[in-house]
Amino acid sequence: MLLALAGCGTVEPGAGGVRAESPCPSKAPRYGEVPRPRPTATAEAPRPPGSPTPVPSTTGTVRDGVRITRLYSGAIDEEGVCRPSSLTAEFEVTNPASHEMTYTIVLDARGYTGASRVMGPVEPGKTVRGRVAMTREHGDLAGGTSVSILSVRSVPSAETPAPGGPCPASGVRVYADEGDAAMGLRVVGLHLENCGKKPYAVDGRPELEIIDAGHERVDGVRILPSAEVAQLGGPPDVARPLTLRPGERALSGIVWRNTVQAVDGAVNAPYLRVRARAGAAPVTLTPELDLGTTGRLGVQAWRKQK
Fold first, then answer.
1. Among the listed ranges 21-35, 64-78, 185-199, 286-300, which one has the minimum average pLDDT value?
2. Beta-carbon neighbour count of residue 109 at 10 Å?
């Protein structure tokens, strides 16, 4: 059962639901009024006016340390206007680990576009709160009044990929792209950028470690040159020494097939710990590995990006 929602309202005694109130008022200036200053953009959705809907503790509202706490009908857009066709959800995240973690939370509401938030670093044993807004396209009808936590992924904050922002202390960035999936074949690019001030040398392929949803290492999967899993085309996949000058980039990639050849033994692991070279600081990516029962993961050698 997913949580029940009917907007900025109050519980109606005996009705077993929530009574919707009038749509949230607009903050747009009326004719003749002085326009209000445009709000500063933030990573967190503003809270709409009105009273929140209380959230019962039901299936779909609590998952992996994340709990939906309140819901609002409407969302404030970047112009400061409350859009009643949108939906705002508040949630809290509790970190049970012994080290700082960074969370990626995806919420879903039928009839709305899903929304995600990155929260962190969250200190051990601490709880932080966040807010996301979900919208629906013009002309689309909301398919229901339920919101649920679609997925929760968490990585050690010290291993969080940094595709932008300040250069990491290591002097290099390692991150993944969105990848591609077709006919059971999965391909995800691994990117390496020397954002430091010294040359950075790699030799061959990145080192990989597969991590399951419980943050435990997955054994029994063979990590092979990519050509032994699938022919991807492009230049020959040859491992050779490579030195990146400051500002230069390199590209690798992982490839696997979601092929099930047995009843048991399928491997599903959301995380991949990557080291650009032996002894390098690790970065934990989230490629959502669904390896089937083949037990193989292919990896390409680093090659310089032009």
1. 21-35
2. 25
Cβ contact 104:153 at 8 Å: yes
With contact defined as beta carbons under 8 Å apart, do 75 and 142 qualify? no
What is the rounded distance in angstroms from the CA atom of residue 8 to the CA atom of residue 200? 55
Backbone angles phi, psi at 114, to 5 degrees: -65, 160
| b/e per residue 8-22 (b: at least 16 CB within 10 A) | bbeeeeeeeebebee
How far is 266 from 260, CA to CA, in rounded Å?
Answer: 7
Burial class (CB in 10 A: 0-12, 13-18, 19+), 267: buried
User: pLDDT at position 85, please?
Assistant: 78
Q: Are 90 and 70 in contact (CB under 8 A)?
A: yes
**How confident is the model over 17-31, as pLDDT tens digits?**
222 233 454 443 433
For residue 92, the cross-strand partners are 67, 129
| Edge-to-edge strand list for the sheet holding 101-109 | 115-122, 101-109, 147-156
Neighbours of 274 (CB within 10 A): 25
Q: Check pLDDT > 80 for residue 265.
A: no
Between CA 189 and CA 231 the distance in angstroms is: 15
Residue 294, pLDDT score:
83
What confidence tens digit (pLDDT) does each residue in 154-212 have?
999 999 998 888 999 999 999 999 888 776 789 999 999 999 999 999 999 999 999 99
Judge whether 107 and 55 are in contact, CB under 8 Å: no
Residue 124 has pLDDT above 80, yes or no: yes
DSSP-assigned beta bridge partners for residue 271: 211
Domains of the chain: 9-156 (no CATH), 172-304 (2.60.40)
Mean pLDDT score, 89-101? 95
